Amino acid sequence: MSPIPDDVIEQVRDAADIVGLIGAHVELKRTGTDYRGPCPFHGGAHRNFAVIPKKGMFYCFVCHEAGDIFTFFMKKFGMDYPTAVRDVAAKVGIVIPERPSSGPDPREPLYEALTVAGEWYARRLREGADAGAAREYLARRGFPLDELLPVGLGFAPKGDEFAAAMRQLGFKDERLLEAGLLVERDDGSLRPRFWGRLLFPIHDLRGRVVAFGGRVLGEGEPKYLNSPESPVFHKGRLLYNLHQAKQAIRQVEHAVVVEGYFDALR
Ligand code: ZN
């Protein structure tokens, strides 16, 4: 069986309702924010076994068995880790893609290109003489630049400077194309996809840059231009800024979903 990508494991863990899944095997009762029941591991009759949905964990106060939803299935049913992940995935309706070999993630070069691009664009927003309009635009919307730096906002200038800088760093055009950073002109030559735009990096659940959303400054169409679908970016499976918000959502068991990048940042 091929290894399961980390982001998929995380996705399964996030989607799993630990109370429901463990509750199918242990009689759980709500106690405050936790759930208690008799421990299935040491076999006690008292409610010493706690399931803590906020943390996605279980814990027994007597025998000290502890872990997450995957650990529970491993310990309870003697599964190995990948089997437990696949079992839980099947229960929550997530399809785990098979990879042909167990080598390094073939998408790694794309993550690398997108990360480096994000850093280049962010520096341009901070320092570029041609990014003045972008900085003013952010200030007008009430976003001080120093607050936005950790979010990684960037500026894509007009012209071929970005492509030249990436080539200089050793990135080949094929890789930049596959990552959606370059596009082909009608005459077959290449240009940067983002041209005179304010860029919002889009991260996956693990916080890796997988795409950009680019807002035009001043007049122009389209107002927003996104990276295309790629091996690392599947638009329908991502929620902007969720990598930052997921812990808080888990803690308060509540989420606010808004439409725009700025709304999300605010
Ligand atoms: Zn126990």
Q: List segments where confidence is low: pLDDT < 50 over at least 5 consecutive residues.
A: none
Number of strands: 11
- The spatial strand order of the largest sheet comes to 1-2-3-4-5
Structural class computed from helices and strand pairing: alpha+beta
End-to-end CA span: 43 Å
Cα-atom Rg, whole angstroms?
Answer: 23 Å
Short description:
By secondary structure, the protein is an alpha+beta fold.
Explain this structure to me?
This protein is of the alpha+beta class. The protein is built from 11 helices and 11 strands. The protein has helices spanning 6-15, 18-23, 69-77, 81-92, 108-127, 132-140, 145-148, 161-168, 173-178, 242-252, 261-265, and strands at 29-31, 34-37, 49-52, 57-60, 66-67, 154-156, 182-184, 190-192, 197-203, 209-216, 224-226. The strands form 3 sheets. It has a 5-stranded antiparallel beta sheet with strand order 1-2-3-4-5. Strands 6-9-10-11 form a 4-stranded antiparallel beta sheet, with helices on one face. Helix 1 (6-15) packs across helix 4 and helix 3 (69-77) crosses helix 4 (81-92). It is elongated, with a radius of gyration of 23 Å. 24% of the residues are buried. The model has no long low-confidence stretch (mean pLDDT 90). It binds zinc ion (ZN). Residues 39, 41-42, 49, 60, 62-63, 65 line the site of zinc ion (ZN). Zinc ion binds at residues 39, 41-42, 49, 60, 62-63, 65.
